[in-house]
Amino acid sequence: MAQIDYLLRAMEEHGASDLHYCTACKPILRKDGGLAALRSEDPIAGETAKTVLYEIMPRANVVQFEECADTDFAYELAGVGRFRVNIYRDHKGICGVFRLIPTDILTCEQLGLPQSVKRFCTLGKGLVLVTGPTGSGKSTTLAALIDHINDIRNDHILTIEDPIEFVHPNKRCLVNQREVHSHTVGFKSALRAALREDPDVVLVGEMRDLETTHIAIETAETGHLVFGTLHTTTAISTIDRLIDQFPSSQQSQIRTMLASSLKGIVAQNLLKKKGGGRVAALEVLVVNPAVSALIREAKITQIMSIMQTAKREGMTLLNEELCRLVKEDVVEPGEAYAKATDKEDLLRLFQARGVSFKPTEPEAG
Question: Which of 108, 213, 310, 351 is the most exposed place for a label (fewest CB within 10 A)?
Fold first, then answer.
C-alpha cells in the first residue's frame, strides 16, 4: 500500500473529483467544483511530498519530471479506481494533482446527451470536437461517445491519450488504446502512424499543436471519424482557434478543409447544481451545408444566427442552455452568470424569460 493511498480513499469517500497534494499545504480536495483542505491533516513537508509522490511515479516519469519539472501518468488503486496524475514543481516544492476517473463509463443517456450529439457516433467520416475548460467533463463525454460506438458499430477504434483514462473493453468493436510516452513518442507520431493501423474511428486526446491539428483534419478528410478536444468555451471560438493557429498563408486552405471535414462541436461547461453535484451545459453545433459555406467564406461570426434558428437539427447555444437550467431550478442564476461567456446576452435572456437576477458589482480598487 502506497502512502498516498489513504488520501485517495478519503477522496472517494468524500465524493471528491480531485486531490491536490502540495508542499507546505494541507491536502486539498475538490468537490462539486469547490476546494476544501482536510483539516485533520498537517501541512506537507517538502521531503515528505517528494517521498510520497516518487513512490508511485513510474521510472520513466521520474526521468521526465527531473528533466522538465512536470509529468503525467495514470495510477490505479484496487477497490477505488484509476487516477490521472500530474506531478509538477512550484516555488514551494513538488506538488501532485490526482483526478479520479470513474471505473464505470457513463452512458450517453446517463449524461443526458442530446440525440444530435449521439448522431455524431453514426458518421462514417469527419471531425467531431468536444471542447471546454479544464475540468468540464470532456473526457467523460468522449468516453460515453466511444462506448456508444463500441455498442452499435463493428469497427476498429484507436485512441491516443495522455494518459489513458477510461479503459474500453472490446464489445462489438476492436479497441486499441495508446498512451503517449508509454506506447508512442507523442500525439503527432501516433496520429501519423494511425493511418497504417487500419482504424475506422480515431480519438485524439488533445490537439495540442499545429501539426497534430493538421494531421487530424487530414485523417478526417480521408475517410475516418476523428474525435478530438480543445480548451475552448464556445463552438465559434473553437473554429477561430483551429484556423488562427495556422500561418495566414495556410488559413484559406485550412478553411476549405474544415468546411468539408468538420461535422460537429460540443462545447461544454460544468455547473454546480442546487443541493450538490454538478450538471453540464452543452452548446452544440451541427455542421450543415450553410455552416460549411460560412466556414469556407471566412464568415464565422454569422454561424451564431444559424445556431439560433436550427434547433430542429439539434443545435443549442450555451446561454440558452444556461437559462434553461436556471428556469428548471437546477442551478442558481449566479452560477449560470459566472459560466457565461456573453454575460450581457444572458442577462437579456434572463429578463425575457422572467428570471430575477442582478449581478454583484465588483468592489472599487
Answer: 351
- How far is the C-alpha of 27 from the C-alpha of 9, rounded, in Å? 13
186 phi, psi to nearest 5 deg? -170, 175
Q: Are 265 and 238 in contact (CB under 8 A)?
A: yes
Query: What does the pLDDT look like over 55-72, one tens digit per residue?
Result: 999 999 999 999 999 999
Residues 27 and 172 in one domain: no
pTM listed for this prediction:
0.85
Nine-digit cell string for 30: 475538490
Identify the pLDDT of residue 134. Answer: 83
Q: Give the containing element (helix H, strand E) for 151.
A: helix 138-152
Under a CB-based contact definition with an 8 Å cutoff, are residues 166 and 303 in contact?
Answer: no
Q: Are residues 89 and 125 in the same domain?
A: no
Same domain for 90 and 112?
no
Instruction: Name the CA radius of gyration of the chain, rounded.
Output: 22
Q: What is the pLDDT of residues 224-236, one digit of tens each?
A: 999 999 999 999 9
- What are the distances in angstroms from CA 199 to CA 94, 124, 165, 170, 257? 40, 12, 20, 14, 21
| Number of separate domains in the chain | 2
List beta partners, residue 268: 282
Here the CATH number for the domain that contains residue 26 is: 3.30.450.90
Q: Can you read off the three cell numbers belonging to residue 151?
A: 455498442
Percentage above 70 pLDDT, the chain: 99
83 and 228 in one domain?
no
Return the pLDDT at 362: 53
Average pLDDT for 172-197 = 91
Q: Domain for residue 71, yes or no?
A: yes
Whether residues 253 and 143 share a domain: the answer is yes
Structural domain including 183 reads 108-316
C-alpha to C-alpha distances, 213 to 216, 227, 238, 247, nearest whole angstrom? 5, 11, 12, 13
Among 273, 295, 316, residue at a domain's last position:
316
Q: Pick from 89, 90, 88, 86: which is nearest to 19 by CA?
A: 86
